[in-house]
C-alpha cells in the first residue's frame, strides 16, 4: 500500500522543526537517480551512435536497420510503460528498480553474444527495453517527485544530469573500448559496471517515500516520535519543536474516498484531455528530434570528413552543455511559467539544426552541437516537471507511462526516418527540414499549454 495514503498525513507536522542547515535525505534519492539515469539512458542511448557503423559491418546491415534497434527499444518500452507506471505508483519502487537493473545486465550480456541481427533485436527488445524502463527515468521521476514539491524542478534537473554526465564520458570511452577490446567485449564491460555500481546504489540508498521514514517532501517532518524513530535523519531531535509554528496538512479528499487519490492515471482520462494531447505533440516532437540528431550525429560528422574520434568528442560536447541546461531549465521551471523554458528549448534546438544544414566545418559543427545540446538538455527535466505539475506525485509514474506510449510514433520515426532519407538520398538535409517544421508546430502548441501545480497547491493549503 502506498504510504501516501496513511491516515497520519492528517496529523500535526512541524515544517521547520529542524535547523535550516539540516541535510535533507531527499538529496540522497536525487543522487541515486543521477547514477541510475546515467546507466539506463547514458550507456545505451549516448553510446549507440558509436556502434552504428561497426554493427552495420558486423551484421551486413544498413544504417536504417541498425537504427531500428533503438526503435525496438522505444517501442517495447513504450508499450509496457503504462502498466509499468501503474506498478510503480502501487508497489515497491526499490524492488522494481532492482529487477530492472538485473534485466539491463542480462541485456548487455545477450548483445555481446548476438551472432545475427535478429538476436541483436531480441536482446534489446526482451531485456534492455524492459530493464531501462524499470530502473530508469520512469522510476527515478517517481522517486524524486515523491521527495520534492517546491524544489522539484531543480531536483529533477540534477537527477537527469546523470544522462548528460554519461553522455560526456561514454562516446569517447566507448570508442576507445571498441577499438581496444572489440564491440562485444565493450558490452560485457557495461554489464560488469552496472552490476557492481548501480545495483548497490539502488539497494542501499533508495527509499520509496519520505513518509515511510517519518519525513515529508522538501524536508518537512511529522511531529510524532513514533513516526520519526526510524527516520533517515535519525539524529534529529525535537528540542526546538515547541518554539516553531505547527501546521496541519489539509487533504483534498475525505477518509472515505482517499483510495481514489492513488488510482493510476488511466487511458480513459488521457484520451479525453486536450492538455494530455498537447503534451504528447510538444514532447513527442522534441524527443523525436533529439533521437534523430544524436543517433546520426557521428555518422553525419564523419560524412563531412571529420574523424570518428573527433565526432565522438563533439557528441560529448552536447552532453556537457546538457549538464548545465538540465539544472538551469529545472531551476527556471520552479520559478516561472513552464512555457517559457519550453519555448527556449525549442528555439535552441532549432538553431542548432539550422547550423548543421549549412554544411559546417569543425568550428561550426562544434557551435551547432553546443547550441543544440543547450536546448535538448532541458527536454527531460521539463517533461518530468510538467507531468508532476499536471497530475501530482501520486499519479506521476502512470501519467509518465501513458505519455511515453502516446509519444511513441514521434520517437520511433525520428532516427529511422533520418537513416532512411540518408540511404535514399545520400544526405540528411531533408531530414533536417522535417525536424525544423515539426519543432515549429510544437512551439505553437506550447503557447496554449496551461498547467495547475496540484502538489504545490495542496502544499500551500497545508501551510495556511
- Name the structural class: mainly alpha
Number of domains: 1
Please report the number of helical segments.
18
Largest sheet: 3 strands, antiparallel
Shape: globular
Briefly note the CATH topology name.
Growth Hormone, Chain: A
Sequence of secondary-structure elements? EHHHHHHHEHEHHHHHHHHHH
DSSP summary, beta strand count? 3
Strands ordered across the widest β-sheet: 2-1-3
The CATH homologous superfamily is termed MFS general substrate transporter like domains
The mean pLDDT is 79
- Beta content comes to under 5%
Based on the structure given, which CATH architecture is correct? Up-down Bundle
Q: Could you estimate the helical fraction of the residues in percent?
A: over 70%
Which terms summarize this structure?
18 helices, mainly alpha, 464 residues, Growth Hormone, Chain: A
How would you describe this protein?
Helix content is 72%, strand content 2%. It has helices at residues 26-58, 63-90, 93-113, 117-135, 137-147, 152-180, 183-205, 225-228, 267-271, 274-303, 308-335, 339-356, 362-376, 379-391, 396-406, 408-425, 429-446, 454-463, and strands at residues 12-14, 221-222, 247-248. The chain is an all-alpha fold and 464 residues long. The chain has a three-stranded antiparallel sheet. The relative contact order is 0.16. It has a single domain (23-212, 264-463), classed as Up-down Bundle (Growth Hormone, Chain: A), CATH 1.20.1250.20. The longest helix has 33 residues, at 26-58. Residues 1-19 and 224-262 have low confidence and may be disordered. It is globular and about 60 Å long. The two termini are 29 Å apart. It has 18 helices and three strands.
Amino acid at each position: 500500500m502506498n504510504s501516501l495514503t496513511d491516515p497520519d498525513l492528517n496529523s500535526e507536522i512541524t515544517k521547520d522543526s529542524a535547523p535550516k542547515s539540516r541535510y535533507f535525505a531527499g538529496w540522497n534519492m536525487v543522487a541515486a537517480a543521477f547514477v541510475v539515469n546515467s546507466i539506463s539512458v547514458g550507456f545505451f542511448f549516448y553510446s549507440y551512435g558509436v556502434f552504428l557503423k561497426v554493427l552495420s559491418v558486423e551484421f551486413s546491415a544498413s544504417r536504417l536497420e541498425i537504427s531500428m534497434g533503438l526503435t525496438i527499444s522505444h517501442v517495447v518500452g513504450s508499450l509496457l510503460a503504462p502498466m509499468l507506471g501503474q506498478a510503480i505508483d502501487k508497489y515497491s519502487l526499490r524492488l522494481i528498480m532492482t529487477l530492472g537493473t538485473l534485466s539491463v545486465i542480462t541485456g548487455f550480456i545477450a548483445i555481446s553474444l548476438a551472432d545475427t541481427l535478429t538476436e541483436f533485436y531480441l536482446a534489446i527488445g526482451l531485456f534492455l527495453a524492459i530493464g531501462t524502463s524499470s530502473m530508469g527515468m520512469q522510476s527515478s521521476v517517481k522517486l524524486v517527485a515523491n521527495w520534492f514539491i517546491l524544489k522539484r524542478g531543480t531536483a529533477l534537473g540534477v537527477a537527469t544530469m546523470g544522462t548528460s554526465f554519461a553522455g560526456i564520458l561514454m562516446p569517447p570511452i566507448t570508442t576507445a573500448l571498441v577499438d581496444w577490446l572489440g564491440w562485444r567485449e565493450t558490452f560485457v564491460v557495461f554489464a560488469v559496471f552496472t552490476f557492481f555500481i548501480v545495483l548497490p546504489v539502488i539497494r542501499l540508498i533508495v527509499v520509496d517515500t519520505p513518509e515511510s521514514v517519518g519525513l515529508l517532501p522538501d524536508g518537512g517532518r511529522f511531529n510524532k516520535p513514533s513516526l520519526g524513530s526510524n527516520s533517515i535523519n535519525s539524529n534529529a531531535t525535537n528540542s526546538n519543536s515547541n518554539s516553531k509554528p505547527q501546521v496541519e496538512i489539509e487533504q483534498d479528499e475525505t477518509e472515505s474516498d482517499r483510495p481514489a487519490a492513488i488510482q493510476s492515471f488511466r487511458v480513459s482520462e488521457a484520451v479525453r484531455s486536450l492538455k494530455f494531447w498537447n503534451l504528447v505533440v510538444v514532447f513527442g516532437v522534441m524527443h523525436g528530434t533529439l533521437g534523430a540528431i544524436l543517433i546520426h550525429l557521428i555518422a553525419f560528422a564523419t560524412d563531412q570528413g571529420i574523424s570518428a574520434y573527433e565526432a565522438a568528442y563533439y557528441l560529448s560536447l552536447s552532453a556537457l552543455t546538457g549538464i548545465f541546461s538540465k539544472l538551469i531549465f529545472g531551476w527556471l521551471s520552479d520559478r516561472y511559467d513552464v512555457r517559457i523554458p519550453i519555448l527556449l528549448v525549442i528555439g535552441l534546438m532549432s538553431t542548432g539544426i539550422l547550423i548543421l544544414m549549412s554544411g559546417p566545418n569543425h568550428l561550426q559543427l562544434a557551435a551547432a552541437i553546443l547550441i543544440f545540446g543547450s536546448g535538448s538538455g532541458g527536454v527531460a527535466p521539463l517533461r518530468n516537471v510538467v507531468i508532476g505539475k499536471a497530475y501530482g506525485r501520486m499519479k506521476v509514474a502512470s501519467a509518465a507511462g501513458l505519455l511515453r506510449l502516446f509519444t511513441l510514433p514521434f520517437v520511433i520515426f525520428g532516427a529511422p526516418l533520418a537513416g532512411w532519407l540518408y540511404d535514399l538520398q545520400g544526405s540528411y538535409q531533408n531530414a533536417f527540414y522535417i525536424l525544423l517544421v515539426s519543432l515549429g508546430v510544437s512551439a505553437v502548441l506550447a503557447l496554449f499549454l496551461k498547467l495547475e501545480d496540484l502538489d504545490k497547491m495542496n502544499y500551500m493549503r497545508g501551510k495556511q
